[in-house]
């Protein structure tokens, strides 16, 4: 069973539909939001037409609940049918595949997860990944309270998936941007109908490797072609961000048409590793992990397309760090100081 994600329903459905034509013994299990009731529609499709089309009422409207409450029993039921050799799962548009796969993994039995697949438009990639549209503005969110940007949702799909189908002009600026964001081990296909079903359903999902690509503690600057002006900065330091100067510089550091990921720390909470995740002018930060015996580091990988932005971003990064003299003074001066980042990082004791 392979999970297929996208932020564009037409591309997702075209890819799944094309794959179904390759074999009569493969089904698609697709979930869509019913506009009238806000419930989910479960649609089971074969190459020759729709088999099931039912509304699903959930106790709680979230992706993990949808997978646990409905997809798990449905997959088990479909997998028991002798004539079914494979299933393509299309979760709700904009779903995070790491959440989908993470919820499904413990329930593998008659079926198992193949490598995840994401489909995106090269022609729309610049706007989708770096623009400031939210899912709500595009009508792509399926639960109230989903405040993610389109870029955040699409980046999560691209970073997690083992295979990326990029539809459109392969030499475009959008394709160049995706090359900067994808890891070398991720397979890139530039034709909607070039990926055979046998390859989509072959192998097994390496969930831990996919999660590592998403993990801000292990970000890497993959780089790529620069013909269209795409650039990637690899910014790192042993020094932490100064809490107040970070607030002063955060717009210069994270604003604009950027995709930025990484981790940082601040001197008034040296036991915390903080996540930085930004797309389309939105930046999400939080104290996510406990540091080990060694002090954390500060490391951001930032990709953009505007020629004037690298100098701005480098300068904001440098200004946000402790100065050499502040760093030489050690961490003792920070004991008991006001935690000005608490509204964004959470309480100092909240890291799990």
From TrEMBL:
Family annotation (Pfam families): cobW, CobW_C
Domain CobW C-terminal span(s) in chain numbering: 230-321
Domain of life the protein comes from: Bacteria
SUPFAM superfamilies in the cross-refs: Hypothetical protein YjiA, C-terminal domain
Name of this chain's protein: Cobalamin biosynthesis protein CobW
Organism expressing this protein natively: Brachybacterium ginsengisoli
């Amino acid at each position: 069973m392979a999970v297929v994600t996208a932020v564009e329903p037409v591309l997702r459905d075209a890819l799944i539909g094309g794959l179904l034509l390759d074999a009569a013994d493969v089904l698609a299990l697709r979930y869509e939001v019913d506009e009238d009731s806000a419930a989910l529609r479960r649609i089971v499709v074969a190459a020759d037409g729709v088999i099931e089309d039912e509304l699903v009422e959930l106790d709680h409207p979230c992706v993990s609940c949808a997978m646990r409450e409905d997809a798990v029993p449905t997959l088990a039921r479909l997998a028991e049918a002798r004539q079914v050799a494979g299933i393509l799962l299309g979760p709700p548009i904009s779903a995070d595949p790491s959440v989908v796969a993470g919820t499904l993994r413990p329930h593998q039995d008659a079926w198992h997860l193949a490598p995840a697949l994401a489909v995106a438009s090269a022609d729309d990639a610049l706007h989708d990944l770096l623009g400031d549209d939210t899912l709500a503005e595009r009508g792509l969110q399926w639960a109230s309270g989903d405040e993610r940007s389109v870029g955040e949702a699409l980046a999560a799909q691209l970073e997690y998936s083992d295979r990326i189908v990029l539809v459109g002009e392969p030499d475009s600026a959008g394709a160049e941007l995706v090359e900067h964001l994808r890891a070398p081990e991720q397979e890139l296909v530039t034709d909607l109908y070039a990926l055979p079903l046998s390859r989509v359903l072959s192998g097994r999902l390496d969930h831990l490797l996919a999660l590592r690509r998403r993990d801000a503690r292990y970000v890497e600057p993959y780089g790529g072609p620069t013909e269209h002006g795409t650039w990637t900065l690899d910014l790192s330091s042993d020094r932490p961000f100064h809490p107040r100067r970070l607030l002063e510089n955060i717009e210069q550091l994270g604003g604009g048409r950027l995709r930025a990921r990484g981790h940082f720390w601040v001197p008034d909470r040296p036991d915390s590793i903080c996540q930085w995740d930004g797309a389309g002018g939105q930046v999400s930060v939080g104290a996510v992990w406990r540091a080990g015996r060694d002090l954390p580091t500060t490391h951001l990988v930032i990709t953009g397309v505007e020629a004037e932005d690298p100098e701005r971003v480098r300068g904001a990064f440098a200004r946000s760090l402790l100065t050499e003299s502040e760093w030489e003074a050690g961490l003792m001066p920070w004991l008991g100081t006001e935690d000005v980042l608490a509204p964004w990082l959470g309480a100092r004791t909240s890291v799990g």
